Amino acid sequence: MLSDEAYAQLLALRTGLRVFLRWSERQARAAGLTPAQHQLLLAIRGHADPRGPTVGEVADHLLLRHHSAVELVDRADAAGLLKRVRDQEDHRVVRLRLTEDGMRRLEALSALHIQEIERLASTIRASEGLLGAPGTAPDQRRPA
């Protein structure tokens, strides 16, 4: 059975996450982006492959169906935020890369997000002791 303190900390963490997401959406809009475009730019820039992600890979990161990702990419392309580039090795594959404008907007938003995450880190750290190891239910933790 979880303690009252555990429930209070879980509530604080979940509330903090929701506050962060709402704050993030406002910041994206202030930068002239939709929240979905912000996530798209981050999915492209944060992708491990230096050639850039495919639309399918972006769909996976954004938890979207392929056709929804294509629509999002089309709108971002029309807005000048990204470009499609044929893969050098396999010309059937199309990769996504940020334009200078897309990169500039993402850089500004990311700097703000890092600051906000650092501010919220204390709430998350306070919850770690109660939640145990990732993927482990609290009643499965080993005694200290």
Q: Which features does this protein show?
A:
144 residues; mainly alpha; Arc Repressor Mutant, subunit A; elongated
Concise overview:
Helix content is 63%, strand content 7%.
Describe the structure.
63% of the residues lie in helices and 7% in strands. The chain is mainly α and 144 residues long. It has one domain (4-128): Winged helix-like DNA-binding domain superfamily/Winged helix DNA-binding domain (Arc Repressor Mutant, subunit A, Orthogonal Bundle). A two-stranded antiparallel sheet has the order 1-2. The longest helix has 32 residues, at 100-131. The chain is elongated. The model is unreliable at 133-144 (pLDDT under 50).
Radius of gyration: 19 Å
Reported by name, the CATH topology is: Arc Repressor Mutant, subunit A
Structurally, how many domains make up the residues?
A: 1
Mean pLDDT: 88
What share of residues are in beta strands? 5-15%
Architecture per CATH nomenclature, i.e. the level-2 architecture: Orthogonal Bundle
Biggest sheet: strands, sense, closure? 2 strands, antiparallel
CATH class categorisation: Mainly Alpha
Spans of at least 5 consecutive residues with low confidence:
133-144
Biggest β-sheet: strands ordered side by side in the sheet: 1-2
Tell me, what's the shape? elongated
CA-CA gap between termini = 17 Å
Oligomer: single chain
| CATH superfamily placement | Winged helix-like DNA-binding domain superfamily/Winged helix DNA-binding domain
